[in-house]
Write a structure and sequence with these properties.
Blueprint lengths: L20 H4 L9 H12 L5 E4 L10 E6 L5 E7 L2 E6 L17 H8 L1 H23 L1
Antiparallel strand pairs: 1-2, 2-3, 3-4
Protein name: GSKIP protein
Pfam family, one: GSKIP_dom
Family: Belongs to the GSKIP family.
Length: about 140
Amino acid sequence: RMETDCNPMELPSNTEFEEDSDYRDFEGTDVKDMRLEAEAVVNDVLFAVSNMFVSKTLPCAEDVAYINVETRERNRYCLELTEAGLRVVAYDFDQTDDRLQTPYHETVYSLLDSLSPAYREVFGNALLQRLEALKKESQS
């Protein structure tokens, strides 16, 4: 499962359908659209990479989406997002290489941490700034 920040105020308030027995057993109601999941992944870490966007040329489906990312080191990757997680499928935008056997990562943070020292630094600094802000807030 992908971890993303979620603001409870952004959640839809009309969730009555979940209690409705007509819908509860409907196959596929718990399937997430991977394009939406991919957009959330991009929004979560865009600040820490040079460029990142959901592929418009590779096909997105309910069970798979592709994300192009360029690290601050200027390395380009095409990532595959599935229920299994994220993995590198090519070393360029909008490509897949079936010969590439790269491991799945549970989170985008873990994947980028393994690919980009600059990402690690920027993300770590952002985390420190957030912690400092929280510390100041609690002291006032």
